[in-house]
Design a protein that fits this description.
The complex is a heterodimer of chains A (313) and B (265).
Chain A (H helix, E strand, L loop, with lengths): L1 E4 L4 E4 H18 L4 H10 L4 H25 L5 H28 L2 H33 L14 H7 L4 E4 L4 E4 L1 H17 L4 H12 L3 H26 L5 H24 L2 H24 L6 E3 L7
Chain B lengths: L1 H21 L10 E4 L3 E4 L6 E8 L6 E8 L5 E9 L2 E11 L5 E5 L3 H4 L2 H6 L4 H7 L1 E6 L6 H15 L3 E5 L5 E3 L3 E8 L6 E11 L2 E14 L1 H12 L1 H25 L4
Parallel strand pairs in B: 2-13, 7-9
Antiparallel strand pairs in B: 1-3, 3-11, 4-7, 4-12, 5-6, 6-8, 10-11, 12-13
The chains are: A mainly alpha (313), B alpha+beta (265).
């Protein structure tokens, strides 16, 4: 069954989009990532113009994340206070990031810089996460079968240093008494990254919340989803106004798949242990890093391509 | 002096007439009577391209028929060209290409070079060489190189052929002609063929000379929801954006509530 997408200007199989939306939604509910970093490349792979793919994905992330955030809120996994502090940092960082993008564009080859940053960031985050969760799994296997799903990761030295900063706040849900400067700074950093990479930033945010702030895995995921709803809503609106690239029909089909997928993801997340979720996410992130790296190095099949800025009409 | 003036005037006149005789004006030829199975294509929710049949009467029995499909509007596309920098592949230059048609399809009874001369082909824009000759490219970014024209043309052709927007079929089986007079064929409009006016031109050649010409106009337009989405996104972007966000949040919460009632905890 084919459906014609009005803004993308193409016809495509309905169930293909629904299926991709469902699969990404599942991962999004499971890991608390918006899924933008998976969905945008997938949409481009099936022929959607890049600009339309990115903007419509933001739109569907709003739905998947609000569905996931709602599910996590019911399960008591959202730390609203922490979420708002991070969000404030995220908006600040996003604004800086957009300006940086503008400067990089003027200097030329923004796309190349973006891909290199992608490979470095994803490789670093994925690698660190993989090693850490692998160790935890091995340790818990050798020790007695203790439930560690809700336990926070052991305090890192970085966490202790930041703990000494002023502006201390009490984050009851996460069970933390830490400086607000610190989550705000992480929000800012991730905001800058997110603007450069053109994604929601959940895949950087969640590890940062777990390993640097020291939040429990499940609270980090719930809180991240909450802030993603607001950030991607803002991006959707901006894209619709500035670039006219939001394909509502595409987003509607994607979100039908992803909202349902996200529910199953959230339930599956409850059944899996924290380190199991982390190692899965690490594998996906590493696989994407390898793909991106080969994109940069292997001879492309087509030397000439339509410039990305041309999409959307 | 006077003689020289007369001579140069005569020369100018000869050149002028010569130029007139060289250019071919298809509209001046006997009309090829044509008809299409439909002239308006509506893009609805389940649109996946369309197939339109064309019929025509050849004014000179036994002449060679060539039919060309193009869009009325010309397009400007930006193309990036990749190159190797160190171990990495990155886009090293960008060209803005104008003058190339958005869609270009040809059906001919036999290979074009057996029907018409190169000059006539160029004049009437028949064949890829003619399209290539009309293509203009302007460097937007990077350093130009002499082989760029060939690379860009090849790249553009590949992109267009992949989307089924360009193709040339030189096969009598694709263009049926009964008793040398009545011809029948169809063009497939791919889903990538968006809103706009398209023209189907029929040319009849006898021994390389144009002896008949006809033209049909096909209009493709969006209707219903497709039309509304496109119009609203362009004309009321703020409303469209807010609507997109509200629908997304609503759908997300709705599914959340539905699943919540389903007993998952």
């Amino acid at each position: 069954m084919d459906v014609y997408l009005p803004i993308a200007g193409m016809s495509i199989n309905f169930f293909l989009i629904l299926g991709i939306g469902g699969a990404v939604g599942f991962l999004s509910g499971l890991f608390g990532v918006g899924g933008g970093f998976l969905l945008t490349p997938l949409m481009m792979m099936i022929g959607i113009p890049p600009a339309v793919a990115a903007a419509s994905d933001s739109n569907q992330i709003v739905a998947a994340a609000s569905s996931g955030a709602f599910a996590h809120w019911r399960l008591g996994n959202v730390d609203f206070k922490m979420g708002l502090v991070i969000l404030a940092g995220g908006i600040f960082g996003g604004t800086i990031g957009v300006q940086l993008v503008k400067i990089l564009r003027a200097m030329g080859n923004f796309e190349f810089v973006m891909k290199v940053v992608y490979v470095l960031m994803l490789g670093l985050v994925g690698g660190a996460m993989f090693i850490e969760s692998w160790r935890t799994i091995r340790r818990s296997k050798s020790a007695s079968a203790e439930d560690t799903s809700a336990a926070p990761v052991t305090e890192s030295s970085l966490t202790r240093i930041f703990n000494k900063l002023p502006l201390k706040m009490n984050f009851e849900r996460s069970g933390l008494h830490t400086s607000a400067i610190f989550p705000f700074a992480i929000g800012t950093t991730v905001g800058i990254m997110a603007a450069i990479l053109g994604v929601g930033g959940g895949f950087i945010m969640v590890p940062a919340m777990i390993y640097i702030i020291g939040m429990p895995t499940i609270a980090a995921i719930g809180t991240d989803l909450f802030q993603i709803v607001l950030t991607s809503a803002n991006v959707t609106l901006q894209q619709a106004i500035v670039n006219h690239t939001v394909d509502l029909l595409l987003a509607l089909i994607l979100l039908s798949g992803s909202t349902i997928g996200a529910q199953f993801g959230a339930v599956a997340g409850k059944r899996l242990k924290g380190e199991q979720i982390r190692i899965l996410l690490a594998i996906i992130v590493l696989a994407l890093t390898v793909k991106m790296f080969f994109d940069l190095v292997l001879t492309p099949s087509d030397l000439v391509s339509l410039a990305t800025s041309g999409g959307g009409h | 002096m006077k003689r020289l003036a007369i001579l140069s005037l005569a020369c100018c006149l000869v050149c002028f007439w010569g130029a007139l005789a060289l250019a071919i004006t298809p509209e001046a030829q006997p009309k090829v009577i044509t008809s299409a199975s439909k002239n308006v294509v509506e893009i609805g929710l389940s649109y996946s391209g369309d197939k339109i049949f064309f019929f025509g009467v050849n004014p000179v029995s036994g002449s060679d028929v060539v039919i060309k499909l193009t869009a009325e509007k010309e397009e400007a596309v930006k193309l990036s060209v990749k190159g190797k920098v160190g171990p990495f592949w990155m886009s090293v230059k960008q060209y803005e290409v104008t003058g190339s048609p958005f869609i270009y399809k040809i059906h001919a009874i036999k290979p074009l070079d057996q029907i018409i001369s190169k000059e006539t082909a160029q004049d009437l824009e028949l064949g890829y060489e003619a399209v290539r000759g009309k293509m203009k490219m302007e460097l937007v970014r990077g350093k130009a190189a002499p082989e760029d024209e060939a690379i860009v043309w090849k790249g553009l052709l590949k992109i267009k052929e992949k989307a089924n927007l360009y193709n040339i079929v030189e096969d009598p089986a694709r263009l049926e002609i009964s008793e040398g007079k009545l011809f029948k064929h169809y063009f497939r409009f791919p889903p990538a063929a968006t809103e706009g006016r398209y023209q189907v031109e029929s040319y009849c050649f006898l021994k390389g000379e144009l002896v008949g010409y006809g033209k049909d106009i096909i209009e493709i337009k969006k209707v219903g929801l497709e039309h509304w989405f496109t119009q609203t996104s362009q004309k009321q972007p703020v409303f469209y954006g807010i609507m997109a966000v509200i629908i997304a949040v609503g759908a997300g919460l709705l599914v959340g509530v539905l699943f919540g009632k389903g007993g998952h905890h």
